[in-house]
Amino acid sequence: MYEGAAEKKIGLLHRVKVALEWIIRFYAMFMVGILGAACVVFLLLLIIDKLQGITAAKNK
Description:
80% helix
């Protein structure tokens, strides 16, 4: 950007296309993150359940 530069017009369709590309990319990354977090929580709950079963068996 410098003084005297020719002004470029950005069309509405180009703006919509770029916005959709960003939305789709970040929504996909967000969904992958949520899925990964859910898997980690599920695995932690399985581990905790197994550990509680082991400690219950030792106390009998």
